Amino acid sequence: MFWLLRNPNCLAHLPKEVDNALESTDIIATYDKVWNLPYLKACLDESLRTTPPFSYNLPRRTPLEGAIILEEYVPGHTSVSIFILCCPP
After folding, report:
1. Is the domain of 44 the same as that of 70?
2. More confidently predicted of 81 and 74
């Protein structure tokens, strides 16, 4: 919703696609009717790409023999992670 509200053109286009997929008697959009809507999928994919659903690092351990990461040797059994920027501009 954050990204749709910041992009009025996208916000205007999405309900049209969803409305076209539904019958006039539908109160709730069922999965069967919306699972293959391309614009809805693009909106979801882009929002997850731009703002991942987690804000913490994803820790991993190097193998016992160590590893080369970005041309640097990291000793074995060391916890490493990559910071993920997840805050909207």
Report:
1. no
2. 74
Same-domain check for residues 45 and 80: no
**Do 80 and 64 sit in the same domain of this protein?**
yes
Containing domain of residue 76, as a range? Answer: 57-89
Mind listing the pLDDT tens digit for each residue in 15-70? 999 999 999 999 899 999 999 999 999 999 998 888 877 766 778 899 999 999 98
**Cα–Cα nearest to 50, from 2, 88, 7:** 88
10 lies in the same domain as 41: yes
